[in-house]
Structure formats: C-alpha cells, structure tokens
Amino acid sequence: MTENTADITIDSRGATCPGPLMDLIGRVKTLDPGTVVELQTTERNSTTDVPEWLEKAGHDLLEIDEKDDHWNIYVEVN
C-alpha cells in the first residue's frame, strides 16, 4: 500500500502513547464508512494498541507499514 491510497493522513509522529490512538479515534468519529486513514506514528505501542481498538470498534486494519523511523498504519472506517 502506498501513501496515495489513503483519503486522510494523521501525522502523530513524535506523540507518546496514547496520543496517536486518541488522534485516530477523534478523527474516525467524523469520517464516512469506506474512508481510508493513514496514521503516521513513532510510538511502537501503536502497532498493537491501534489494531486492538479497531477490532473492538468494528473498523478494519488494512496494513502496518514499517519505515526507517516510524510506522504507517492504514485503517478503513466502517
């Protein structure tokens, strides 16, 4: 997956836990089903916290893409 496939990008790089997850939750509430969100994070815990929340909230994890200095987590809103 590439950055161009996301409809929305949330740049939470540099934020500590649970900041990136909170940024995602706040934004997802405002989006229509089918919207693809890219969450950029430097917080390793986001790679487990976000998928756990997505499962509970009923959204889809599309991909976690590890870069040199951060992760891109792709989510589809349901």
UniProtKB/TrEMBL annotation:
InterPro entries: TusA-like, TusA-like_sf. PANTHER family: SULFUR CARRIER PROTEIN YEDF-RELATED. Pfam families: TusA. It comes from the Archaea. Belongs to the sulfur carrier protein TusA family. It comes from Natronococcus pandeyae. Residues 10-34 form the UPF0033 domain. SUPFAM superfamilies: SirA-like. PROSITE patterns: UPF0033. This is Sulfurtransferase TusA family protein.
